[in-house]
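Kindly review this protein for my students:
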Amino acid sequence: MDGKYPFHIKPEPWLIYNEKHNYTRGLFFMDGEEWLHFRRIMNKLLLKGDLSWIENSCDVASDLILSRVMPYSKSNSEFPNLESELYKWSMDVIVSILLGANIYSQSHKVLEPLVEKLASTVHLIF
């Protein structure tokens, strides 16, 4: 249990990168009162509005992973690496939310190699 303030594990490669390039961590890696301050700002945006835009973006990403995985379930082919697929799916969700479901649906073929590279890089970090 986190208590009033969460404590986030900070991956060492991210800490080194942030220090080298003088970047801050962002909400997911903030702790203490700093986290609470920015979380209250985000709460206003996320808890009191229509969140269908997030749901739509998640649907796009879910459709993509199903299109990649379902053919294997219907054949005798070797199933893809589920861990890698879930990393790809999580990056699809994030990019779809950032761009919007409609734009990501239309451009995911062009973005797919970049999202796959991002997913494999995040996978290496964690």
